Structures are given as structure tokens and as C-alpha cells.
């Protein structure tokens, strides 16, 4: 029962982090303590990101010194999620302290590599992200860039092994969400590498990445497609990264705009965010808030101004992206959003940094 309780809390934590909805985790209410139920009821009192920390703290409180190794592995998974939260909150010192505990995988997780490739996939991309974050948005030197790419490639191969097993065992629940997190981080890291290259380009034309880089990005995008088949409200990620892939390829911006538009729409909203809709605040979004904010950010940063419906549309989209990121608790991306506002000279005084 205690193990089920820990797994349920871990499931709720990653559900919050990846924005995969707030439906029941599949366990009967009786298997979850009143403490966890109270957390779920209070979920909207904090940001989506900060709620992860509430859930990850509880499994650790139930561990004792004589626990078997299988249950103490929960601490490693929980620490991975907490590290991700501190990254999003811009709390780099806390993230580095936690990373010191998780950079070495527990022995049992290392030994189960032939049967479960997920820990190694997550661990490799975790290392890649830490290198990028330690670099504080500066261009990587050749050796670091090579190391990040090697780690991403290793993670990608391990993730593909996971997806092969999925077709046999029908993975679901917490394992599927950790696969989604791994794939998210892979695509985020490859996108960040591209943006660092794009930032250093002297001209403002369409920069096309080498074919090998694009092929690896598309491989991870295909992995994402496979994962979200079983997570319907994660579909907005597909459109977002398809758009990023087109930007990396230097493709025509009009279809790219359409993909970003699809990422921004909710299931119940049919108007385009690029068509001057004045009441986007009331669209019925179900999960994926970070991805929608990212889509607005990408549109404002990379699409030609002529594709946006009016001169004020870019400012409005950035303001909305900022509000969404503030709600989610992604302070790191929020900072990037404010920097873009300043660089574009929007003069959005109603949104405070």
C-alpha cells in the first residue's frame, strides 16, 4: 500500500510538471492518504510548477532507513522532478545541489538497462540540459556543444528502445509521462542549441541547420508523436515542434504560422490567434499551457511581422505569453519573454517584470 501511495504521488507530480491534465491517476481514493487528497484540492493555490514540489516532498517522508532499494529509487525520480522545477523557477543553485544527488543513478536503475531503458534516456538528457543551463544562454564552445549533442543522441536512442517496448507491453501511466518528459527535454535541448546558433548569425535571413541535425530533431519529433498517441492533450507539442523544425530547415513561414496557430488553439476554440481575436483569455485550455506560451514566443520571435494580423498583435501575444508563464510558474521562460519584449521595443507597461 505504501509503495502504491508513493507511486501515486510521483504520478501526480509529473502530471503537474508536463501539464498532462488533472484526471485521476487510476488508483482508488482509499489508497491515497487524506494528506494527498488535501494537496489535490489545494492545487490551484500555487503555480502549476510549485505544486510539483508539494507532491514530491511526501514520498520522501514515508521512507525509512530499512526500505528496500526498489522503493528508495523513488527518491531519485522525485529529485529529477524537483531539479526540473528549480530549473523552471530560475533557482539554479538549488538545481545544481539536487543535480549532485541525481547525476549518479541508483545501482538498481543502472543494472536494469536491458529491461528498462527509460532511466538511462532521462539521465542522459538531464546531463545535456545541465550543461546548457550552466552556460547561462551563452554560446557553447566546440567541445561542450559536441558533448551536449552526444548526450542527446544517447538519450534519443534509449528513448526509441522504450517506444519499441511500448508496442509490446502497452506502456501507460507514470512510465508514459516520464517518456514524455524525456522527449520534451530532448526537443527543448536541440531547440536551444539551434537558437544559440541562430542568435550568432549576422544576417536576418533563414538559417538552415545541417541535414544531420535536422534528421535527429525529426527522429525525436517522431518519438513524441508515438508518445502522445496515448496522451491526447499533449498534442499541442507536436504542432509546436513541427513549427520549430520548419524554422530550423529555413522553410516557408506561412505553413509554419499555421502549425503555431494549431498549437495555440484549444479543442473548443476555432478562431485563429493570428486573426486579431480579442478574447483569447477565455479559451478553454486543458493542459499544455507552457507549450502554448512557447508557441506565442516562437511566433513573435521568428515569424515575419507581415504574418501577424496587426502591429499590436505581437505585443498582445507576448503579454499573454508572459501571463501564462507567470501562472504556470516558468520564471526562466518568463525572463526570456520579457527580454524579447524589450528587444522588440513593445513598450508593454501593463506587464511587470
Quick structural gist:
This protein has 353 residues and is mainly α. The chain contains 15 helices and no strands. 67% of the residues lie in helices and 0% in strands.
Question: What would you note in describing this structure?
Answer:
This is GD14826. GO terms for molecular function: DNA-binding transcription factor activity, RNA polymerase II-specific; RNA polymerase II cis-regulatory region sequence-specific DNA binding. By secondary structure, the protein is mainly α. It folds into three domains: 100 residues, no CATH class; 109 residues; 115 residues, no CATH class. It has 15 helices and no strands. Helix 4 packs antiparallel against helix 5, helix 8 packs antiparallel against helix 9 and helix 14 packs antiparallel against helix 15. The longest helix has 28 residues. The chain is globular, with a radius of gyration of 20 Å. The chain starts with a helix and ends in a 9-residue tail after the last helix. The C terminus is likely disordered.
Helical fraction: 55-70%
Please indicate the percent range of residues in DSSP E strands (runs of 2 or more). Answer: under 5%
Overall structural domain count = 3
- Which spans have pLDDT < 50 for at least 5 consecutive residues? 22-45, 266-286, 346-353
Which series of helices and strands comes N to C? Answer: HHHHHHHHHHHHHHH
Count of separate DSSP helical elements: 15
Instruction: Choose one word for the global shape.
Output: globular
Tell me about the largest β-sheet: none
C-alpha end-to-end distance: 46 Å
Report the count of strand segments.
0
Q: From the alpha carbons, calculate the radius of gyration and give it in angstroms.
A: 20 Å
Question: What structural class do you assign from the helix and strand content?
Answer: mainly alpha
GO molecular function: DNA-binding transcription factor activity, RNA polymerase II-specific; RNA polymerase II cis-regulatory region sequence-specific DNA binding
Keywords: DNA-binding, Nucleus, Transcription, Transcription regulation
Protein name: GD14826
Subcellular location: Nucleus
Amino acid at each position: 500500500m505504501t509503495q502504491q501511495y508513493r507511486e501515486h504521488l510521483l504520478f501526480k507530480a509529473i502530471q503537474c510538471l508536463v501539464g498532462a491534465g488533472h484526471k485521476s491517476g487510476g488508483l482508488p481514493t482509499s489508497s491515497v492518504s487524506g494528506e494527498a487528497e488535501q494537496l489535490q484540492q489545494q492545487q490551484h493555490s500555487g503555480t502549476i510548477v510549485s505544486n510539483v514540489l508539494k507532491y514530491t516532498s511526501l514520498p520522501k517522508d514515508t521512507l525509512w532507513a530499512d526500505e528496500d532499494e526498489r522503493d528508495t529509487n523513488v527518491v531519485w525520480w522525485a529529485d529529477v522532478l524537483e531539479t526540473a522545477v528549480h530549473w523552471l523557477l530560475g533557482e539554479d543553485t538549488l538545481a545544481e545541489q539536487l543535480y549532485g544527488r541525481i547525476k549518479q543513478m541508483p545501482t538498481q536503475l543502472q543494472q536494469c538497462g536491458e529491461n528498462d531503458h527509460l532511466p538511462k534516456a532521462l539521465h542522459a538528457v538531464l546531463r545535456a540540459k545541465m550543461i546548457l543551463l550552466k552556460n547561462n544562454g551563452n554560446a557553447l564552445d566546440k567541445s561542450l556543444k559536441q558533448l551536449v549533442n552526444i548526450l542527446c543522441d544517447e538519450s534519443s536512442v534509449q528513448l526509441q528502445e522504450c517506444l519499441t517496448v511500448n508496442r509490446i507491453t502497452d506502456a501507460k501511466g507514470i512510465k508514459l509521462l516520464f517518456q514524455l518528459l524525456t522527449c520534451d527535454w530532448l526537443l527543448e535541448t536541440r531547440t536551444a542549441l539551434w537558437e544559440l546558433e541562430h542568435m550568432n548569425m549576422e544576417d536576418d535571413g533563414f538559417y538552415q541547420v545541417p541535414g544531420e541535425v535536422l534528421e535527429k530533431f525529426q527522429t525525436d519529433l517522431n518519438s513524441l508523436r508515438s508518445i502522445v498517441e496515448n496522451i491526447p492533450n499533449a498534442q499541442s507539442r507536436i504542432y509546436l515542434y513541427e513549427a520549430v523544425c520548419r524554422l530550423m530547415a529555413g522553410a516557408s513561414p506561412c505553413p509554419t504560422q499555421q502549425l503555431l496557430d494549431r498549437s495555440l488553439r484549444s479543442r473548443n476554440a476555432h478562431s485563429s490567434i493570428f486573426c486579431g481575436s480579442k478574447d483569447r483569455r477565455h479559451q478553454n485550455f486543458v493542459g499544455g499551457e507552457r507549450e502554448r506560451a512557447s508557441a506565442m514566443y516562437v511566433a513573435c520571435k521568428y515569424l515575419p511581422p507581415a504574418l501577424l494580423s496587426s502591429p499590436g498583435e505581437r505585443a498582445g501575444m507576448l503579454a499573454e505569453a508572459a501571463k501564462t508563464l507567470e501562472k504556470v510558474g516558468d520564471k526562466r521562460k518568463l525572463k526570456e519573454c520579457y527580454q524579447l519584449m524589450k528587444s522588440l521595443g513593445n513598450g508593454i507597461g501593463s506587464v511587470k517584470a
